[in-house]
Amino acid sequence: MSVRVIVRTFSELCITFGALIVLFVTYVLYWTGIKADAAMDSQIDRLNDKWASGSMTSAELEAAGGSAGGDATDESPPPPEAYEDGQPFAVMYIPRLGADWNKPVLENTRTDTLKKGLGHYGKTAQLGQKGNFAVAGHRRTYGDPFKDFPKLRKGDAVVLNDGRTWFTYRIDTKEPYKTLPSDVAVIDPVPRKSGFDGPGRYLTLTTCEPEWGHSHRLIVWAHLDSTQPVDDGKPEALRR
């Protein structure tokens, strides 16, 4: 085999390999995003249909009647029934991440679940209850829900709607805290390093760091600032 044939064969292999890399990157960057956006929209549509039809359980209806508006107090609203594994139960809004930023929150943090939205750490508190309501989301790929996570700052609002009540949390972290994936104490009922010194109604958000890796985690913590019934309209944080 001549040198020319060897060089040409090698060049063709390099071109083929390069094309495969381009296709893979396109898939990761765009196609997974398109699929994830469609999946998240579908989850939100399911929730809206459920809420519009009034198909709540008796326990959920009782909880809805017991939720008081105004500032958050030491009194937790009546707990909803256990969240259904892998299913959506709330929608999250973070104005800092965009006026149209909204993502469904589903139960568990398994890989397949995080392809469809944000995931609630199953052993943490339920939304609005005493303890730590902890939620994870992808930084990149699958819709990039937490792409701009590093922009979050103290005082930013994180608003959730479960079909009955608006829950407005306020971030207490000056800027996202960086830690290792093994640092599970960040989702404790009173999270380690959060600055909270006793029981309360807290929110923890987690995502991967660096932007295209997963060697570390970025964390922000928040406290429940106020609640109001959905029938009273959107909370102030979403009207600005």
Write the layout of secondary structure elements.
Elements: H1 3-53, H2 58-66, E1 70-71, E2 88-93, E3 102-107, H3 111-114, E4 118-120, E5 131-136, E6 157-161, E7 165-171, E8 177-179, E9 201-209, E10 216-229
Parallel strand pairs: 3-4, 5-9
Antiparallel strand pairs: 1-10, 2-3, 2-6, 4-5, 6-7, 7-10, 8-10, 9-10
What does this protein look like?
The chain has 240 residues and is α+β, with helices and mostly antiparallel strands. It has one domain (3-238): Sortase, Chain: A (Beta Barrel), CATH 2.40.260. Helices cover 27% and strands 25% of the residues. The chain has three helices and ten strands. It has helices spanning 3-53, 58-66, 111-114; strands at residues 70-71, 88-93, 102-107, 118-120, 131-136, 157-161, 165-171, 177-179, 201-209, 216-229. It has an eight-stranded mixed barrel with strand order 2-3-4-5-9-10-7-6. The chain is globular and about 80 Å long.
CATH class (first level) name: Mainly Beta
**What is the 3D form?**
globular
Low-confidence stretches: 22-26, 57-70
Q: Give me the CATH superfamily.
A: Sortase
The termini sit apart by 72 Å
Helix content: 25-40%
The CATH topology is Sortase, Chain: A
Estimate nothing, just give the exact number of structural domains: 1
CATH architecture: Beta Barrel
Question: Mind telling me the C-alpha Rg?
Answer: 21 Å
Portion in strands: 25-35%
Quote the average pLDDT. Answer: 85
Q: Helical segment tally? A: 3
Please summarize what this structure is.
With 240 residues, the protein is of the alpha+beta class.
